[in-house]
Amino acid sequence: MNMTLKFQAMICAVVILAGFIASLYLETDIFYNLAWALTGLIFFINPVYPESITCLEGKKARRGIRIAAAIIILIGYTHGFGV
């Protein structure tokens, strides 16, 4: 199944919202951080980009999405969002 950018963004929004609710309910910030790291992992595994990007080659666009996903994973693991 090929996921579109819109569908994958909705999945990531649900994951982040679930992590936020779990962090509030359990009063620990690790779930919110893990939700951001999981979001980055989703985009790292399946790098999707808008169809309107025609000036970039697909290979370069996927590489850029994977670099951005790695940065999101790093921020998710190192930054204390709830502090």
From TrEMBL:
Keyword Transmembrane: yes
Spans traversing the lipid bilayer: 7-25, 31-49, 61-80
Keyword annotations from UniProtKB, A to Z: Membrane, Transmembrane, Transmembrane helix
Protein name, per record: AI-2E family transporter
Species of origin: Enterocloster clostridioformis
